[in-house]
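Exercise 7 asks you to align residues with tokens for two separate proteins.
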Amino acid sequence: MQIKTFSSRKYKSDRRIPDTTP
């Protein structure tokens, strides 16, 4: 799990994709 994505709301949907997504 990546902490960067963990903070993102899309984490549950895309944990591979960074929170840079809209």
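Second protein for Exercise 7:
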Amino acid sequence: MVVRPSLKLLSPDQINNIHQYSIRILEDTGLKVASERALKIFSKSDAVRIKNDVVYIQRELVDQSIQTAPPNIEILKKTVIMRFTWVKNRARRHGLESV
């Protein structure tokens, strides 16, 4: 029998609250974007408004992005071989090895 400990840092209600406030920030406050390349990419979306290099992102684009995000994301660090895999709301750490 393999025991896999889990740690829940936030309740579903707390996660939902963070998401709702994040949406408000993206829609109402916006993000200051200094990259011309990034601004050009954002400008191609109908769900984005840009004013004075501040990007305002509508909820629909965020929801669509979440729905189409890959189920697994590996995060690697260049100086140390340390791999994390994000799988269905769980992060797994794989071995550490100095480069």
